[in-house]
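Workshop exercise sheet. Pairs work together: one partner reads the sequence aloud, the other fills in the structure field after running the prediction. Swap roles for the next sheet.
Pair: D.N. / O.F.
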Amino acid sequence: MPFTFNFSNFGGFGQGGWQPGGQSGQDAGYSRPQRERKPRKPIGTPLTRTLINLAVTAVVGLVYFYVELPALNPHAEEFYVFVFLLCAVYCGCAVLTSGFQGTGAKGYLGFVKKQCTVPFFVVIALICAVAVGSIASWVVLRAGAYSKLLPLTTGDFASEVEEIRYNQIPMLDSDSAARLGSRKLGELADMVSQFEILPSYTQINYQGRPVRVTSLAYGDLIKWFTNRSNGLPAYIIIDMVTQEAEVVRLDEGMKYTTAEHFSRNLNRHLRFRYPTMMFDEPVFEIDEEGTPYWVCPRVVKTIGLFGGTDIHGAVLVNAITGESQYYEDVPTWVDRLYSANIIMEQYDYYGQFHNGFLNAYFGQRDVTLTTDGWNYIAINDDVYMYTGVTSVTSDQSNIGFILSNQRTKETKFYPCAGATENSARESAQSQVQQMRYTATFPLLLNIADQPTYFMALKGEDGLVKMYAMVNVQQYNIVETGQTVGACEKNYRQTLLDNGIIDRIDAEVPEETDFQKMTGTIAEIRSAVIEGTSVYYLRFEGEDGFLVYASAATIPSAPLLNVGDSVTVYWTGSGQWITARSIVVENRAVAAPPEAAASGEETSMPEGTDTEQTLPDNSLTEMAENELGVDGF
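Structure field:
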């Protein structure tokens, strides 16, 4: 018999039968009614609600201000974030306290417009201000103003950048200085367990020496809590020439630093006293008496609302007492007011836009940029930042470099086509490639009127092993040495061998201190040796000639006269006292116009430590004792 199924009992798949989702046909059109939201009651009276909204907004604002420390200045971006936050908090509180129950964003927006009119229009005004200020600061429209941020003049390297003595050459880079500082702190058992060193070393001139200085910091929060009453007990000085580290202990600890917390934190201390000022990164310095200060450069915006970042004065904060004062013209002992980043940014604006915005991207005539990296050098008791300048179309060679005073922002561009700093580093490393030494970022020096890259060569342990000098214009001329003196001697000899300098410039200046003597000239004789005029001086009371002076070394030597009272500076020993400098103390006859214009004296050598006044018969006796001469 046939086998059949009756599906009628299952309801089928048609009307009244099974429906997807497990619903029967009778229930297919059924929907559960939405649950009505329970209406919220407003809190108190309108005045009460307003006061609550203001109180909550004030609390949130104070907490945010204490933590984030925004500058209350319309030129600061964080100011707008702060005001937007306050308006948002007030509007949120108003919605909650009023019992409003809107539907969708449109409903809430309508409530804010009606019930939070003041915050709403404040936000609209701020948005308009940001838009207008951004357009007014837009580099496309203000390229000319951006190109004038950095006053720039052109200089001559050989005549303006003097050869500096060895005791002014900073041989340590920041990494090596940090390593020496950590090692020195590790030697002090009473400090190493409680404190660490801030990594932000500042290069300054301290008592005529290039050094790096930094403050100590607390090891952790617990160590801060146990030591905060006495403050930080010391700071560290790293001599960049002798490579000696010194921990300077203070009679009273530093209580205002970037390592502090709460009200003694330096940034919070500044913000509470100068709420409207914008600041660059504070730097740690010491004055000539060794008192620690924080130099806090004041940032200003000079183009529109947000463009043209520059520095206008600084607040100096005593790290011990917290006393602060704003200076438009900072004291001369301050060495770092303008950071390298600001100077390089401003030069890049000049290099790109001094011929207009479109030229920076189309045509690119005379478009230049700074190279990657910078270094510092001490000149006349100021610290100058150095960086190379390269054409935007080529990154393999420099067209010159800039030197910028970090206190005054006085900046000069020195045209000098040659190798980039990284090319010079590669050349130096290739000289000792078997040693696998790494070259530090180079320092620019004047060696025999030749722009020269000087750098330290470090081993894998991070310590300085050798030194290298690379000629900027001919970077295939590379010499190395175990000491700076040996390196310079080899370098000068190579310059001589290549016909770049003459034999006189190939002599390395003495590093020893000068001696000096005073006498009255009784007789002068001259001669020409290898094309150079030389002069032999006999003093009153002497039978023979004692002093030898070359016109190449002392240009004013031909102006000397019999009867002049002079002071002679010299170093070393030999048959003759070879003068390094001669200062006329009293002229016997009227000085020629050339001498009068030059001030009647040659440059006074530094480091003089031995003085001998030689009247009459004492000159020969001194020469015999000091130089081993048996008479003249």
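Discussion prompt: DSSP finds 16 helices and 29 strands in the chain. What would you look at next?
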